[in-house]
Structure formats: C-alpha cells, structure tokens
Fold this protein.
Amino acid sequence: MTHLVYLIAGWGITFVACGVYAMSVMRRSRRVAARVPVDRRRWMTAKDADQLGES
Amino acid sequence: MSESPTSSKTSRLLGVAVALGAIALVLLAFIAVEPDVRINAETGQEIGQFDAVRLLFVHVPAALIAYLAFTVTTVGSAVVLWKRSVWWDVVAGASAEIGALCAALTLITGSIWGRPIWNTWWEWGDVRLLTTLVLFMLSLGYLAVRRLEGTATERARRSAIVGLLLFLNVVIVNRSVEWWASQTLHQKSTIADATIEGNTLFTLFFAMVVGVGAYVWMMIHRFRLAWLERMSDRFGTDDLLAARRAEADDHARIASAVGGTSPEGESS
Amino acid sequence: MDSVVSLRQAIVLLGGFPALAGADLDVRSGEAVLLQGPNGAGKTTILRLCAGLARLESGTAEVLGVDLATDRVAVRPHVAYAGHRSMLYDELTVAENIDFWGAASAVNDDERWAAADRLAVDERLHDVEVRRLSAGQRRRVSLAVAAARRPSLWLLDEPHAGLDQAGRDVVDQLIADATDAGASVLIASHELDRVRRSAGRTVTVAGGRVLEAVARG
Amino acid sequence: MVEARPRVGGAAQAVLVAKKDLRIEARSRVAINQVVPFALLVLVLFGFALDADTAALRNFAPGLFWLAVLLAAVLAVHRSVSVESGDGVGDALLLAGLRPDAVFVGKTLALGGQLLALAVVLLGGIVVLYGASIEDAGLLVITLIAAVIGIASTGTVYGALLAGQQARETVLPMLLLPVLSPVLIAATRAWGDAMGTVATDGWAWLALLAGFAAIYSLVGAMSYGTLLEAAHV
C-alpha cells in the first residue's frame, strides 16, 4: 500500500481526537452530575428552559 | 466503565450504530476501495492519488460536519437573539465546539493528503483551504467569547452576536480569498470525476452518513453536559438564596431581641 | 399618593450570587426613604435595580410606572443614580463633563450650570481635569450632573461619604429640594443620624431582603 | 407617570460622543505618543525582517502597511474601550439615555478619525522607508477611507463585546484579526494597484472593502444596544 504513513497519520489523528474529545465530555459530565440532584438529571424540557433562562 | 450521566437509550443505540459504522467504514475504505490509479493517455504513465485517496473518507466528512456544525451555531444564535431561547444557546455552543474540532481535523487531514498529492503541506492558492483556516480561527474566537465572565444571559447575548457574525464572516472571507487566490488546486473535479468508481463513491457517501451520525451522537452528549452545568449553577443559586434568606431572618431576630432597633454595631 | 417604587419578591443575581433574595419595597412620590443595614445587605443592589441597571431575575419591580421585568431602558432617563463611583470622564475637565452629560441627557445650558451652582461646584475648578479633583469635589460634580436632569427619583448611595461639612449640608439641601419639588429619594447610608433628619422613613435591609419599615419617630 | 423628555437627534448624539472621544485623545495623547510610534516601529522591523531588500520592500509595501495598520488598530480599539471603562462611566452612559446606535456611530467616527491620521503618517513611512510610489491617488485615498471605516466599525463592535472583561487584552486580537483578514487582503490588493506593484483591478477590491464596511456598520449599529446591556461591568 502506498502512502501508508500518511494514511495511518490521517485516520489515526481523526479517531484519536474524536475519542479524546468524547471521553473528556463524559468525564466532565460525571463530575458536574455529582452536583445535580438525581431527580433533576433529566434532559431539558420546556419548563426547565423557562426556569433557567431569561425573564 | 460506569455509565455516563449523559447517556440515554437513544444515545447508546446511536453510539453503537456509529461505532459499528466506523468499523465498517475502515473496512470499506481499506479493502473495498481500489487505489486511484489511472493511465495518462499521452505518456502512458501511471497517475492518480494511489492509496492516498483513502484519506478522503475522513477528510470529506470532517469538512462536511464542520460546516454543518457552524451552520447550526449560526441558526442557534439567530434564534437566541430573536426568541431569547436558552435551548438554542446551549445547542449553538455545543455545536461550535464540535465544529472547531472538525475544522481542525479537516485542515490536518487535508494537509496530510496534500503532502503526497500536491507535494506541499499547505497551498496558499486554494480558496477552500484558506476559508476553512479562517473559519477555524473565527470559531476559536467564538469559543473564547463563550468562556468570558458574566451571567448566563450576558454570555448568551454576547455569543449569539458573535455566532451570527460567524456565518457572515465566513461568506466575506470566502469571497475575498476566492478573488485573491489566482488559481485553485482543490478537488472541484474529484467528486464529479467520471473516473470515480462505484465503490469509492459509495464509501464516501457512507463516510458522510457515519460522520453525521457521530456529530448527532456527540451533540447529544455535549448538549446534556452543558445542560447539567446550567442545572448545577441553578441548584448552587438555590442554596445561596436559602443561605441569603437565613441571613435576613437572623438579622430580624437579633433586631427584635434588642427591642426593635437595628444593630448599629454591624454597620461600619 | 402615587407609588414611585414597588418591589415584590424581587430577586437579583450578581454573578450567580443572590444580592436581592426576595425584596419588597414601596416608595411613594415626594417621599425620602433611608435604607439602612449591614455591608453586603443589598442596599446598593436595590438602588441599581430601581435605576434600571441591575437585571430582575424574578419577582416584580415597577419604578415610575415602568415594569422593569420587560423594559429597563425606559426608566433610566428619569432617575438619578449616584453611587460610589464618580461616573465622570477622568481626562475631561469639570466643565467638559458637565457639558457632555448635560447634552447627552438633553439638558439645556442654563439648567446644567444652575445645578452646578446649586451644588457649589467651585468656578475655579471648571477647567480642572476630573482626575485631579478630590473625592469630595468629584461627588459634587457628579451630583450636579444628576441634578441637572431634574429626575423624578433620586437614588443616592452613601451620598455623604467623603464630603466635608459644607458638602454634607449641600447634599441635605439637595434631598430637601428634591422632595419639595415632588421627587422621591431613596438613600442608602450608614450615617443614620444625619440622613434620618432628611428622610421620612427608615427601612432596614439585610440578607437581600427588606426587614421592616420604621416610621419616623 | 414617565413623561416624554426632549430628545437630542441621533446624529447630534453621535457627534457629541465622537467629539468627546477625540477630546480625550487630544488630552491624553495615547494615539500620538504610543499607537503611532508602535506602528512606525513595526514598519522598521519589517525592514529588518526582509533584510532591507529594497525591491522586496517596495513590492510588499501595501501589505506591510496594512498589517501595521491592523496591529496598531488593535491598540487603538483597546484605548477606545478603556475610555468608557472609567469610574462608573459605563453606568452613566446607560443612564444618560443616549441611543446605542448613535454611541456606536460616534465611537466609530472617533476611532476611524484616529486610524486615518495614523494611516497618513504610515503612508509617509512607507514612501520614505520602502520607496513606495503613488500612481493612482484617487484609488489610494478612497480605499483608505473604506478600509478605515471597516476596521473602525468592526473594532467598535468587538471592543464593546469585551468591555469590562479581564481577558480583553488577549481575546480582542484573536477575535478581531481573523475577522479583519478580508480587509487586509482587499486593501493590500487595491493599494497594490494604486502603487503599481500588482496588476489587478483595484476598484473591484475597493467594492469588496466598501461592502465589508457597510455590513459591519449596519450590524454594529443594530447590535450595539444589546452589547452595551450585556457588558459585564
């Protein structure tokens, strides 16, 4: 296969970068979730948006 | 690994599908696709991209998602300014972060592809290259604005204006570099090229589907993280509010205990 | 009489901190009210809320008939807010500041300088840059700028701080003139004895709430 | 209860704000004493970097000129913002009841005026130091004005966005310079034509500059009120 080094670099960087980013998001979310009561860890509803947001 | 608090049934299902899609994509890209080799009709030499063509299956989806993500950011910013929507503020921010990552990957994979094919890491004469680079730098600016001090409302308004300008800026930059760069090396012809085989075309299409799936999956998690952050802020505020009210009650109790006069001692 | 300020369960967040945690307050027109309370009680935030500068998080707030939840801007031209900061351009002279702020709020020349005279801004200071003034001199200039606009509501944050005896008398006179003219005055101060003489009513603020209203005894 | 107050017209308010900014500059001389010398220094450093190659310097004179202007403009924008971050002045501006779009126009005019003066000095600089020659003065002057309006309006918008921020000094260049990259490209090309260093249609580039200036002036006037209210003071 020609250009093998370029192929490994291109595909490798892409997969590693996406993986690292996904892991960091999950890690951050675990840390933040610890500060939110369990019953409020649902995903945002219109009602929540009203409470959180602007007057 | 314990379950992420940003997971749900939908996101897990999508995640598994994207992971399987990625594996299938690797197999398709490295096995099903033939290297791009053509014979020059006049000289009889072998020309083409050879195996480097396989880089396009990460480069093209990354570029597609980058532009898709920033479009979402711009739309979200407009809705924030128009309807003061919190939901769209979170979406715009999440999308810009993923967009910046994909723009960076577009530039990196493009550069890696350009080295063997164009014989240069970077080409100043190319409009899409320059536009994407400036877009990447603009998105870093947008993300910096999102990290500025201030309340959630202040941040939402400020970043919405920058987010709205993001799209406008990209259009202006694209126009200007299009005039500026006298020639373009870019693969305008590649996709339309008749020599692209069925397999290559299918794999490219499949890569875009996997890419969009990955974008949606990442958006779900990133959105939920931002939402958790806001919830955490809010519950923090509730605690502070309770503490603040207790402070007022204490003060009232002391005041009534000393006979209705306020405690001057606390004033200074 | 008309209600000039009406706060109900007003909550204001400053960087996530509840500076006001559900404050109720009423001020009628022509009334001078003293806000007292410890540091960090929320007095300044009440004034800033009434001036249309702080954002109401929840509750209701109506000032001069304007609903602050929906329109903070409309109330601003009709109030005068004088806080710890001079609100003047340091690099401009006294006269240039008075002219700029007067012109910005559409106050004519005569009124600008009449107000300056009333607050005894020394004429010799007119061509001095504000950064060279003492704190007391600055306070007089910024009060003169505010007075020239003939506000319907005065919001004074520690108006006596940093002033000499003559300056304090000028402030007292300003408050008296304002109420005589039918304007309302809200004063946050620690100098209770001094302000109680001018104020009709004293209100205690603590923990971001208004505790009780003490009638003039 | 709130009765209407006589209002000053928007144009008069803009002039008022512009005159105020220029008066402060006349007194503090930040632009004259710091920004202009900095820009001239950049021109000299370009000379060192390009090995004092006269032909190269003459060829690149338009680009180096506009790069120096952009770098100096970042400093000028900082100054324009810090004028309003004085002792409670931000509050006072909101309370005075000035129209936000008028404040935007006023500050843009004052900043643009200073940049124009700076550009004239720098033009002298590239003529003397790089041996640049002017072949089409009309194109040169009109390009200068359009570019300066574009830079000043963009700078005023992004400056207001960062008012009261501690991170302003680092974030402003990062935000402003990519946004201004089309101005750099177009103004360099148009001046290249006006100075006879590049065979291109300078007037077409001028059209792009004018479009940029128009868009940013419009966006700035429309969004300035929101930016002032969202400023973290």
Remarks:
- The helical segments of chain A are 4-33, 46-52.
